[in-house]
Batch of 2 targets.
Target 1
Amino acid sequence: MAEVSERRPGFGAAVLGALASAARGLEAFSFPQRCAGCGVPADPDSLLCPECLASIPRLSMPLCVRCLEREREPVGCLRHPGFTVWPAWVYEERAALVVEALKFRERPGLAQRLGAELGRVVPAEPAPDLVLEVPLHPSRHRERGYNQAALLADALSSQVAVPRLEGALERVRPTRPQVRLGSGSRRSNVAGAFRARRPGWLEGRKVLIVDDVMTTGATLHACLEVLAACGARAAGVVLAWAQ
Ligand SMILES: [Zn+2]
Ligand SMILES: [Zn+2]
C-alpha cells in the first residue's frame, strides 16, 4: 500500500500528462486542414496553401533600423552598417495569420516550415556563424510557455546550417507589448531592456538575430546595440515588417 501511495503523485502527473497530450492531439486535429487564407485543403503544418504563401509580398532588401526607429528612410542607408535588418515578408493579412498562429498557438511544425522564408533573405557575405533569438522576459516566457522568435531562430539555424546559441541575450526587465505604444514610447520601452548573458561568447562572431515581426525597429535596434557593444558583427532577420 505504501508503495501505491508513494506512486500516486507520479500516477497523477502521468494522467495529467496524458490529458495534456490528448488535448494537444485534439488541438492538432482541430487545426484547419484547410488553408487559413482561402479555404482550399492544405497541410496543417503550413497553415496556408502554397498559393497563399507565395502571394505574401516578399522583401529582398535590408532596412536600417537605426534610421527606421528615428523615422528616417530605412532603405539604402550606408551610414549604420551594424543596424541592418532583413525582413522576409511585408506584414499583411496572410502574414498576420501565420504570425498569430506562431505567437499564440505553439506551432513548431509551422516555424520549421518558415526556415526557408528566413533563409532566403540571409546575405551570403559576411557568412554568419551564430544564430540568436530576440529574448522574451522570463515572466512572459512562463506565461506563453515558449518564445516564437526562438522557434524561428531554430528553423533558420537548420536552414542555413549555422549553429544557434540559445539564451545569448536576455531581457533584463519586462517591457510593455510594443504594439500598443507610439514610436517614441517604443524606444524608451526597450531602452536598456537587453543584455548579453556572456559578452565573451559573442565577441568577434558574425551573428544573425531573429524576431517574428518588426514595426518601428526599436526592439531589433536595442538588441543590435548590445551585440555591437560585445564586439559582434550582427544583422537582424525578421519574418515580417509591419510598415
Ligand atoms: Zn490558400
Ligand atoms: Zn541608417
Note: The first strand starts at residue 63 and ends at 64.
Target 2
Amino acid sequence: MKYIIILAALLTLACDHKPEARTSPAPKPETQATKEPAAPPMDERCSALQQLAEMDPRTPVPLQPMMAWHQKQNMMEHLEAIQGITKALAEDDWEGVQASSKLIESSPQMAQMCQHMGAGAEGFTELALEFHKRADKIGEAAETKDTKEVLRATTHTLEACTSCHAAYKQDIVDAATWTKLTGSAHQPSMHHVH
Ligand code: HEC
C-alpha cells in the first residue's frame, strides 16, 4: 500500500507539467527522432501520455484528480439518464421519461457544479449550462405525450453532449496548478454531495 502511494506520488511529480508549457507548440518530428534510448518505465508512461495529449487537439479543461473523477461519474450518470429516457419513451411511460430527464435538468446546484468544473476552460461552463437547458425541454415534451417531440428534445440535448465532447478534454493538474490557472480556490465540499 505504502509502495503504491509512493509510486503515485512519484508519477505525479514526474508527469507534472508547468502551466507555461501548456501553450508551447508540439515538438517537431526531428526532436522526436532524437529520443533518448532506454528510458525508465516512468518516463515511458509520461511520454505515452504526452503523445496522447499532442494528438488530441481539444481544449484542455484543467481539473484536479478528484474533480476529474467526479466529472466522469457525472458523465456516466448523464448517459444513464439518456438510456432511461429512451427506454421509458419506447414504453410510452411519460413519467419515466420525466424521472430520467430530471437527472440532467438545470438546477442551481447543477449550475454551481458546472461553474466549478469549467473554471479553467473558457466557454466550458456556458456549453454545460446550455446542455442542461436543452434537457429541461425533454420533461416539458413528455407533458405533451408526443413521442416525436420527446425524441426531438432528446436529440437537441445529445447534440450539446457531442459538441462539448468535440471541443474539450480533461487535463489533470495538481492543486497549485489548478488554483493558478483558475484564480479560484478548490471547493472540495462540492465533491461530497452524493
Ligand atoms: C460541457 C461539456 C460536456 C457536456 C455537455 C457533456 N459532456 Fe460528457 N464529457 C465531457 C468531458 C470534458 C469528458 C472527458 C473527456 C476526456 O476523457 O478527456 C466527458 C466524458 C464523457 C464520458 C466518458 C466518461 C468516462 O468514464 O470516461 C461519457 C460517457 C459522457 N461524457 C457522456 C455524456 C453524455 C451522455 C452527455 C449528454 C447527455 C454529456 N456527456 C455531456 C464534457 C461534457
Note: Residues 6-14, 18-24 have pLDDT under 50 and may be disordered.
